[in-house]
Amino acid sequence: MLHPSGAGVTPIRGKAGPCELAILRPMKRGMHVPGELWLAHKRKPTTDAVEILHRRYFQGKPERLSELEEARGNHDVALKIHDLREKAGMTQAALAKRVGTTASVIRQFENADYEGHSLTMLRRIAAALNRRVEIRFVPTERKLTQRARNHPDERIGRPQ
């Protein structure tokens, strides 16, 4: 349960002991229930910017987490296409010619905000770059491990 201050709290009845932090539970218009106290669970402080942003914008918000995962996937696809094209020494126009499309389509696929990736077009781009598309189903991660936070390039789907 969350206290309005954002701290995790557990309701307790009675008086707070000498080692407990008691916070009165606010009700509508600043009123509270007499005799009900909240025992705050103190969060471990952090200076890790990623952890702070996660707590502020994503923790406890499954819809935001799914949007984040979708954005990561779009970013990974765009980055992979761009890196493979650059590694092959091709311009967007040259890749487009080999794929049989226009440079603006390649530009869209290299844009992390683009959400219209089709498997057919990804296969055509891969073939033009002497690659093939591989799709894997991997277990979802509940929580990032400390190693994944410290080494973001080792996360699933990141280029090696």
Task: Supply the key terms.
single chain; 6 helices; disordered C terminus; 434 Repressor (Amino-terminal Domain); 41% helix; alpha+beta; 13% strand; 160 residues; 2 domains
Structure, briefly:
The protein is of the alpha+beta class. It has helices at 49-58, 62-87, 92-99, 103-109, 119-128, 146-150, and strands spanning 8-13, 22-26, 32-41. It has two domains: 8-41, no CATH class; 49-154, 434 Repressor (Amino-terminal Domain), CATH 1.10.260.40.
Total helical segments: 6
CATH topology of the largest domain: 434 Repressor (Amino-terminal Domain)
What is the H/E order? EEEHHHHHH
The main sheet comes to:
3 strands, antiparallel
Q: Whole-number radius of gyration?
A: 24 Å
The fraction of residues in strands falls at: 5-15%
List low-pLDDT spans.
Answer: 16-29, 154-160
E-strand count: 3
Number of domains: 2
| First and last CA, distance | 40 Å
Secondary structure: helix percent: 40-55%
Question: Average pLDDT, to the nearest integer?
Answer: 76
CATH class membership of the largest domain:
Mainly Alpha
What does this structure look like?
- The protein has 2 domains: 8-41, no CATH class; 49-154, 434 Repressor (Amino-terminal Domain) (Orthogonal Bundle), CATH 1.10.260.
- The protein is 41% helix and 13% strand.
- It is built from 6 helices and 3 strands; from the N terminus they run βββαααααα.
- It has helices at 49-58, 62-87, 92-99, 103-109, 119-128, 146-150, and strands at 8-13, 22-26, 32-41.
- The protein has a 3-stranded antiparallel β-sheet with strand order 1-3-2, with no helix packed on it.
- Strand 2 (22-26) and strand 3 (32-41) form a beta hairpin.
- The longest helix has 26 residues, at 62-87.
